[in-house]
């Protein structure tokens, strides 16, 4: 495996070291190997006796000349592309194992212009000073790491893939240890390297888009947007802390999220928050095409806004969850619980059994209290989980508080969910699968259930909707018996988005809707408004519609004035971890 042609010999004045080709034109080596590049020419050769290719240093890790200083990385750009296949990288964890993995380094010590091989192993995966891994000789004999090995790629003996670079070699040949700069540490200092190193949850296109997003940010224009702040915003109050070394750059924080933090949603939140500070249109465009992780977890939902709408930086929702369930003590007694979510962490702000006539006041007070649990830049979503017979309740029209008569639906995006469906493991699993499919397509299909459909067979409707319906729009509210059965059939089909008018047409026509049917007009307007919108963003657009409807001073009510939205994405409301209640309260 050591015969790979991408191994390079580096010369800079009187200094000789090693390096390795990572793109057709870029070579990695140690900064100390080319420490005199400001005055001495740098040459790179890939075969004994060939003329050295001139190169220049285009990126530097910040190494200041001391052996213990971090950032001993330099990126060389060759004068021309070379027709050689670049090195390939292993996953960061592949360097370690039990038994240990044999690592090979190809260096150029004195009197070995053609190069020679040293066999070593990583002592452990523990980083020294947050930067290096200690190396020990594979055997008590053989070639030690001496000057001339600095910058050499350390490769797995069985695969030839790179896991790191020799950054320190002993001056005394009798000392048989050294230091490796792991590949994922080198990526802190040169963002393009991050695209080449395998990471469990992200492909190369995703990492490239994040790099472009970071590159589009101008710190001088937004000085308050520091890497530590963005990192904390991304992981939330219960996520991994900022490493003790801090972050040297915005990319350093981004790469730490990519390579060290298992929550894929944190990367999406980081990207979305960074886009908030970035006015550059191409940068925002890169975020809009950010895909979800390979397993459908985390990631920022793709935003495909119509040309006349501003695209959103799709930050994850921070739901305020209102659960209203029968208490078992009578038809008019309910157990009410209000919670706030920060990432996967749920904080219950109030829970109490109540008679029906006291539910509204209690819920509104607790919703207001729940806002104290959200971060200042949280993207709030008020979600009511209601018994099926309450799904048509006018919760969006509830006055926000005793001192504010404006509708709750005008204050924040508001959705309802079905209590029975939320408790069903099978339907929740089916919803998750539907969202995975929806994330991969630009828009959603609206299935219309008009007034003339009330005689349709509910079982056939359920099976048909399971096969491919993304959204269902009803021409009438679920009050009449026929519409109620079709409404339940849609819930059983795990349709993620359902919309209907709370009032208006009663859905009692069986021979097809009349041309002047208000329900048909409602569906026409709904289809027009929701065309090409991603389902993940529908709560925001319905909120905008409600604001327009509530503010309208036209003599006739706005067509969306009584619009109801059932929207459910189980990923926004995961099973809680940590305390459900304050350990003090």
Please give a structural write-up:
With 585 residues, this protein is an alpha+beta fold. Helices cover 25% and strands 23% of the residues. It has 15 helices and 23 strands. The protein has a 6-stranded antiparallel beta barrel. The protein has a 6-stranded antiparallel β-barrel with strand order 7-8-9-12-11-10. A 5-stranded mixed β-sheet has the order 15-14-13-16-19. Helix 12 links the parallel strand 20 and strand 21. The N and C termini lie far apart (62 Å). Mean pLDDT is 83; it is low at 279-313, 507-515 and 576-585.
Whole-angstrom Rg: 30 Å
Helix content: 25-40%
Unreliable stretches, pLDDT < 50, 5 or more residues?
Answer: 279-313, 507-515, 576-585
Cα-to-Cα separation, first versus last residue? 62 Å
Strand content: 15-25%
Sheet having the most strands: 6 strands, antiparallel, barrel
Summarize the structure.
This protein is of the alpha+beta class and 585 residues long.
How are the secondary structure elements laid out?
Blueprint: E1 7-12, E2 15-21, E3 26-29, E4 42-45, E5 53-60, E6 74-78, E7 103-107, E8 116-122, E9 133-137, E10 153-156, E11 162-168, E12 177-182, H1 183-186, H2 191-194, H3 204-215, H4 227-235, H5 250-260, H6 264-276, H7 281-288, E13 317-326, E14 333-342, E15 345-355, H8 356-370, E16 379-386, E17 399-401, E18 404-407, H9 408-411, E19 414-418, H10 419-422, H11 425-439, E20 446-449, H12 458-466, E21 471-474, H13 481-492, E22 497-501, H14 518-530, H15 538-551, E23 563-567
Parallel strand pairs: 13-16, 16-19, 20-21, 21-22
Antiparallel strand pairs: 1-2, 1-4, 2-3, 3-6, 4-5, 5-6, 7-8, 7-10, 8-9, 9-12, 10-11, 11-12, 13-14, 14-15, 17-18, 22-23
Helix pairs in contact: 3-5, 3-7, 4-5, 4-6, 12-13
């Amino acid at each position: 495996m050591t015969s790979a042609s991408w191994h390079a010999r580096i010369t800079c004045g009187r200094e000789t070291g090693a390096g390795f080709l990572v793109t057709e034109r870029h070579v990695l080596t140690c900064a100390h190997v080319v420490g005199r590049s400001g005055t001495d020419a740098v040459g790179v050769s890939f075969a004994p006796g060939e003329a050295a290719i001139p190169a220049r240093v285009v990126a530097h890790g910040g190494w200041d000349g001391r052996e213990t200083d971090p950032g001993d990385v330099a990126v060389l750009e060759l004068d021309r592309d070379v027709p050689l296949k670049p090195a390939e990288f292993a996953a960061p964890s592949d360097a370690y194992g039990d038994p240990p993995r044999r690592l090979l380094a190809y260096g150029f010590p004195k009197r070995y212009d053609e190069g020679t091989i040293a066999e070593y192993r990583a002592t452990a995966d523990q980083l020294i000073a947050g930067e290096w891994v200690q190396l020990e000789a594979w055997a008590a004999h053989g070639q030690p790491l001496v000057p001339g090995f600095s910058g050499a790629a350390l490769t797995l003996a069985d695969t030839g893939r790179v896991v790191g670079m020799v950054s320190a070699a002993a001056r005394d040949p009798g000392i048989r240890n050294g230091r490796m700069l792991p590949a994922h540490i080198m990526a802190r200092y040169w963002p393009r390297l991050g695209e080449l190193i395998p990471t469990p949850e992200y492909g190369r296109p995703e990492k490239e888009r994040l790099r472009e997003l970071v590159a589009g940010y101008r710190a001088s224009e937004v000085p308050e947007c520091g890497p530590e702040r963005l990192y904390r915003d991304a992981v939330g109050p219960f996520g991994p802390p900022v490493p003790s070394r801090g972050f040297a750059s915005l990319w350093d924080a981004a790469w730490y999220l990519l390579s060290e933090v298992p929550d894929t949603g944190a990367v999406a939140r980081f990207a979305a928050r960074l886009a908030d500070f970035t006015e550059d249109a191409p940068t925002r465009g890169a975020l809009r095409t950010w895909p979800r992780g390979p397993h459908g977890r985390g990631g920022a939902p793709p935003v495909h806004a119509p040309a006349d709408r501003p695209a959103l930086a799709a930050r994850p929702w921070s739901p305020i969850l209102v659960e209203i369930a029968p208490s078992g003590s009578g038809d008019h007694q309910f157990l009410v619980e209000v919670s706030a979510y920060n990432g996967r962490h749920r904080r219950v702000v109030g829970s109490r059994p109540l008679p029906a006539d006291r539910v509204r006041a209690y819920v509104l007070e607790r919703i207001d209290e729940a806002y104290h649990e959200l971060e200042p830049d949280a993207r709030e979503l008020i979600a009511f989980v209601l018994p099926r017979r309450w799904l048509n309740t006018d919760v969006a029209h509830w006055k926000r508080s005793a001192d504010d008569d404006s509708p709750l639906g005008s204050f924040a995006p508001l959705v309802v969910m079905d209590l029975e469906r939320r408790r069903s493991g099978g339907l929740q699993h089916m919803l998750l699968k539907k969202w995975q499919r929806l994330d991969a397509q630009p828009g959603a299909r609206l299935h219309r259930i008009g007034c003339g459909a009330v005689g349709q067979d509910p079982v056939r409707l359920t099976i048909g909707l399971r096969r491919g319906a993304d959204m269902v729009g009803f021409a009438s509210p679920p009050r009449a018996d026929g519409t109620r059965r079709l409404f339940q059939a849609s819930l059983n089909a795990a349709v993620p988005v359902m919309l209907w008018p709370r009032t208006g047409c009663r859905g009692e026509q069986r021979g097809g809707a009349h041309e002047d049917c208000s329900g048909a007009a409602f569906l026409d307007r709904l289809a027009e408004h929701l065309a090409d919108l991603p389902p993940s963003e529908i709560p925001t657009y319905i909120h905008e519609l409600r604001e327009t409807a509530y503010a309208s001073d036209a003599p006739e009510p706005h067509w969306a004035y009584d619009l109801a939205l059932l929207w459910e994405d189980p990923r926004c409301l995961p099973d809680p971890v940590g305390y459900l209640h304050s350990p003090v309260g």
